[in-house]
């Protein structure tokens, strides 16, 4: 077992009472090394340096701000939260653009990964956490973290997430209990290895772990099970360019599902990931488009159908009123401090549904909840 250096401090711990049911793997997000919980409570319980040195920065009972939505990301996991998750930050390196979380040239050293395996195995044994509860930050909310294990492209010394999970499970990842060498992989598409969220020797286990919009493939790439992706549109939009790809995941590393040209229409549901908008396109299916090519329509709701349950006040200056529940949606105008509006109780992705008189007319729109003071 790699040595764990105690740098524990209670100074920046925001809350206590961690239930310790899950382990989340992160990357630092910058090229560098750090071993402390930041002011405000942001950080992880453990940090692992390039040479494999492990630092414990917080007690296991600490609840740190590490896997929440922060009013921006979309919750993906049904149970894992800050209040029940132990966080491990891996210090990465990058040969590309370190300001881009989706850059394909992020990587972990072998020493960092091996130390992480040892630490995770120890935590699993000490805290009674199963391997199925060891997750990427990306598995909990739609944040591209840890980049090397979300890209899954084995750049330099990085493993894939499947290989990491195989190591903490005591398996090489290529064997099978039935002697066939069969592994069932869960992906958006067989060719899109970067979308893989798991690999199992047992088909029933793979089916149980399969998420909406994913497919279980056998070792030869044959689809053996699919789970339909549910869709609830929050609006519509048109394509703002020609030859624009709709991809199977939020990033250029994901497979193209098809292309759109300027003016072609599609639906949106607000479940975006960074600069990538979640879309549903007739004849193509559900995927992602870069926000630069998404032109949102005006809200379809009419003022005459509005049913208010209360009123509220804007608490900020120059606050955007948007056509949908997210920063990627078109701004319809801005409100200032003290401007008033009605609310109908709908909330999504940290945004509140409002009716406001803006630019000479009543509009049904959305505003960030952090600037809303209810009466």
List keywords for this structure.
SH3 type barrels, 5 helices, Lysozyme-like, 6-stranded mixed β-sheet, mainly beta, 4 domains
Protein described:
Residues 234-298, 309-375 form the SH3b domain. This protein has 375 residues and is mainly beta. It folds into four domains: 4-170, Peptidoglycan recognition protein-like (Lysozyme-like, 3-Layer(aba) Sandwich); 174-227, no CATH class; 235-296, SH3 Domains (SH3 type barrels, Roll), CATH 2.30.30; 303-374, SH3 Domains (SH3 type barrels, Roll), CATH 2.30.30. The protein is built from five helices and 28 strands. It has helices at 110-127, 137-140, 147-151, 161-168, 203-209; strands at 4-6, 15-16, 22-27, 46-48, 54-56, 62-63, 85-90, 93-94, 106-107, 134-136, 184-187, 198-200, 215-217, 223-226, 235-239, 244-247, 256-260, 265-268, 276-281, 285-290, 294-296, 310-314, 319-322, 331-335, 340-348, 351-358, 361-368, 372-374. The strands form eight sheets. Strands 1-5-4-7-3-10 form a six-stranded mixed β-sheet. The model is unreliable at 171-180 (pLDDT under 50).
Quickly describe the structure.
This is Amidase. The chain has 375 residues and is mainly beta.
Percent range of helical residues: 10-25%
The strand order across the widest sheet is: 1-5-4-7-3-10
Strand content: 25-35%
Span from first to last CA? 56 Å
